Amino acid sequence: MIKVGDTLPDATLFELIEDEREGCTLGPNGFGVREQTAGKRVVIFGLPGAFTPTCSAKHVPGYVEQYEALRAAGVDEIWCVSVNDAFVMGAWGRDQRTSGKVRMMADGSAAFTRALGLEQDLSARGMGIRSQRYAMVIENGVVKTLNLEAPGKFEVSDAASMLAALSPT
């Protein structure tokens, strides 16, 4: 399992691009995790699934609400990662009004999640392999903070916890 001090795995995440911009085509675009985090401070939070109750009611909205505070604390980008496809993540992002605040990154095959060692098997609940709930602060591709939730909990991966981790001691 990934830990503080480790470099993020070299994996590709997918983001649904719905507006024309240089270097991106409309539709799902793949982005290398190491390339996208190079020279940046990024908060990445992972969760079990798009449109699921805790994820939709608390996890994503908290990061949208705390966007300005996280930016003021030196965060360049905020990513939400889930084992869903880019189309689902795009629709969920529209529903959650994440545009310009939280990048909705799809890990459809769970390659990134498995490389982190943070997968969980929810097949008995009809969901297959999914991500555990976590949040981390990444600086230049290196894990500086990792908050991993206990099963069924939502106590340490929220935006307020990440703000606290970023506050000077």
TrEMBL record:
Record-listed E.C. numbers: 1.11.1.27
GO-annotated molecular function: thioredoxin peroxidase activity
GO biological process: cell redox homeostasis; cellular response to oxidative stress; hydrogen peroxide catabolic process
Any Pfam family: Redoxin
SUPFAM superfamilies on file: Thioredoxin-like
Annotated coiled-coil segments of the chain: none
Gene3D superfamilies in alphabetical order: Glutaredoxin
Domain of life: Bacteria
CDD domains tied to this protein: PRX5_like (cd03013)
Keywords: Antioxidant, Oxidoreductase, Peroxidase, Redox-active center
Keyword ATP-binding: no
A Gene Ontology term for the protein's cellular component: cytoplasm
Domain Thioredoxin: 2-168
Catalytic activity field: a hydroperoxide + 2 glutathione = an alcohol + glutathione disulfide + H2O
Keyword Oxidoreductase attached: yes
Active site: C55 (cysteine sulfenic acid (-soh) intermediate)
Enzyme class, broadest EC rank: oxidoreductase
Homology family: Belongs to the peroxiredoxin family. Prx5 subfamily.
Function per UniProt: Thiol-specific peroxidase that catalyzes the reduction of hydrogen peroxide and organic hydroperoxides to water and alcohols, respectively. Plays a role in cell protection against oxidative stress by detoxifying peroxides.
Protein name: Glutathione-dependent peroxiredoxin
